[in-house]
Amino acid sequence: MARPILGLAGERMTKVDTAWLRMDSPGNLMMILGFWTLRPGIGYEALCERVRERLLKYGRFRQRVDQDLAGASWIEDEGFDIHRHVVRESLPRGQARAQLQKRLGELALQPLDHRHPLWQIHLIEHFEGGSALIMRIHHCIADGVALIAVAMSLADGGQAPPPSAKRQAARDVDDWFSEALIRPLTEMASKALEVAHGGAAKSISLLLDPRKRAEAPKALARLGMQVASDAASLLLMPDDSKTRLKGRAGTVKRVAWCDPLPLVEVKAVGKALGCSINDVLLSCVAGAIGGYLRSLGDRTEGQEIRAMIPVNLRPLEQAHKLGNRFGLVPLSLPIGIENPIERVYEVRRRMNALKGSTQPLLAFALLASAGVLAKGGQDALLNIFNRKTTAVMTNVPGPREKIELLGAGVEQCMFWVPQAGDIGLGISVLSYGGGVQFGVITDASLCPEPQKIIEGFEPEFARLSLVTLMLPWDE
Q1: Cα–Cα–Cα angle for 413, 415, 416, nearest 5°?
Q2: Which residues are CB-contacts of 274 (< 8 A; sequence separation ≥ 6)?
Q3: What is the pLDDT of residues 340-385, one digit of tens each?
Q4: What is the pLDDT of residues 244-266, one digit of tens each?
Q5: CATH placement of domain 11-154
Q6: What is the architecture of the domain spanning 253-400+417-470?
Q7: Who has the most CB within 10 Å: 28, 217, 347, 401?
Q8: Same topology for domains 11-154 and 253-400+417-470, yes or no?
Q9: Straight-line distance from the first to the last Cα atom of the chain, in angstroms, rounded to the nearest whole number
Q10: Reported pTM
């Protein structure tokens, strides 16, 4: 019989969330960072009241974290003060966007207070005739998809999360293994069937269908071979290309973002080329990064940089449950291909090769395993991937229609997920209100002027659009 794990009062944190909790480093804090710009401005006390009504209905936003030798627990913060978590400030006059970028960079490396719940909202008053909100939330609370749902609950017309029955925390090793790893992986495998195509998806489908038990042994064998192949590919990846974007992270961050591109135009280019919206956007990201490096005199022929891309592994209707339920897949961006058509088709080929992969599930299992280890063991395990990666990249769909907060229109929004270890480049693509935009967060010692990468994104899309129009479609 398994011996019980001794823990503090409160709800035990899952091992995956524990891994994210302990991943903070001086050069990379595990915070999801984002902003909204609002017009007209909103009042501070009205914002506090909206946060009380909506955000605090999620238990995690009232709870602090206590760590012990076995992991961590969520504990109700008896001294919770809304004014500690919703703060007001103003920016220096002039060049509002540049000042907001500077403040975001500062807050990206300002630790949250672990004596209280790990989140904070900054209300920037008098910003371009309105207000701006900066949101900082520790990754151990939730992943990006879940936090989009949280943010939407604050908007006018948004809803607080549905009430949920409290579950008894797992108390022994066997219970934890079932509760924190096997059951989520089974749920995620089912979810993966909705979006993946390939041998792994078919094999899992057969295993889950009791009417096809006779085929289960062959399906299990195929799945085992797929898992072994994907695990080998994940663990035996060579170190990433040595560009100026890869190196030891410092203690200064820079952020930048572009104005939105019309999503309808991106869709039109993708449809004409037989590519997905993601293929088009990722191709433009690769083109912008390659152009930036070439502008500094670097050679990019034949080069690529590897980005880890989160893959959502939960039904969207369960986003209110928070926590981290995503895997990771590595995508090599062909920054050395200057021809936009050649590059977009190469991105499409690489994205198609990832479909049906079990790597997202393997990455989730790896994070769960890391959460069991001591801090030193976790760091050693995850550092294997830090050497093999230059960037973390996310692509999240936001609301199709523009939203309002306290009667003010949300004009623009953007977010960045954290980078682990010495990874110094974060890339975000977010669609919102009929537009899609690109943002980067960089380590200043590796990329002191990320705006120069941003400035290449729209021209890369314009080049791709122009060349698409010039193709001999009548042939």
Answers
A1: 160
A2: 348
A3: 999 999 999 988 887 766 665 666 666 666 555 566 655 655 666 6
A4: 999 888 889 999 999 999 999 99
A5: 3.30.559.10
A6: 2-Layer Sandwich (3.30)
A7: 347
A8: yes
A9: 71
A10: 0.82
